[in-house]
Structures are given as C-alpha cells and as structure tokens.
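Predict structure. Chain length: 184.
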Amino acid sequence: MLQRRGLLGRRATLLTAGVAVGLAGALALGPGVLTPDAEGGAAATAGPVVVVVDGSGDVLEKVPLGGGRFAVSYRNSIYGTLAEERYEVGADGRFALVEIAADQLAVLEEYYGVPGAPHRTTGTDRRTWAVDPDPTRPVVFERLSIAATDLGERTLHVPGYPPVALWRLVDENPTVVLDIKENP
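Prediction complete.
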C-alpha cells in the first residue's frame, strides 16, 4: 500500500486500483515482486526504488523501479504547458536525463534549446513532442532536489504505477528530493 502525506501533513493510506491489481498479481507470481515495506509503503522485495523525501528528511513516497526508468513532469512557468524530464537509472544508482518531452514544441526548441530536432511522439506517450538532451552536456544525478509547488505541479511517473503528485505531498516547504535506493 502506498502511504502519502495528506494536504495537512497527516499520513493517510491510499490503496489505488492499479496498486491493488499489481499487488494481487505480484503475490500470485512469487518472490521479487511487490510487498509492503516496514513503513507500510509499497516496495519491491529486491531492486531499486525511487524514494521521495521532504526537506526535513521524512520519506513521503517509495515507488519500485521495475524497468529502471522514471520521469518528472511539470508545468513550465514561461509557456504554461506541461513538460517532462525522463531519466534512466544506472547500475550505480545514479540517474541520467535521457529524454525531454513537452506538449508544446517551443518548450523544447526555445526553453531547453537542445541541438537535436524534436520529434512527434506516438499516441501512447503522455506528451506530444520529445527530444534527446544535449549529448555534449550530460545531466546525471545522485539525488535531485526540486521545488514541488502548486504552480509547477511536479509529478513523478514510474511505469506500472499511478502518477505521484509531488506538490500534494508537501506542506509549507515545497522542497522534495528524489533518490534511488536499492531494496535488498
């Protein structure tokens, strides 16, 4: 079960249909799949998880990374449309920006100013346009600190799990840190 901090900072347990189906399937499949962790959150029995921590160091969310990829979407403050940064997790636990996507082409061409030409995405993608980041300037993180504000609507996307609205997990201090931890 996923535990999320409510708007007033209290802990509330949220069991979504997607997690319930995933958990039921995982229990049928056996080891190496979802089980509740010590804090009552969903965690993989083995493998990496995205851990969301607030400015005080409290764990707000844990989401298993079965495929080694995740994304953070946000509302671009200049263009007012949604954009997304997509990451791939390496064997060392660091994560690299591997794609940038947006609903509006100008976000990629002007705001990010990457050298490659954006391409239209397929019908299953959340965004309309995507482009590879600048290969001459790799972006790699061990931990990523971001401002999860109502205006920016930062949202964590992990394939196979419901989106996590990061801005809804915090109170006065909008700082959240994304980290990759290995579950033994």
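Summary: The first strand starts at residue 2 and ends at 5.
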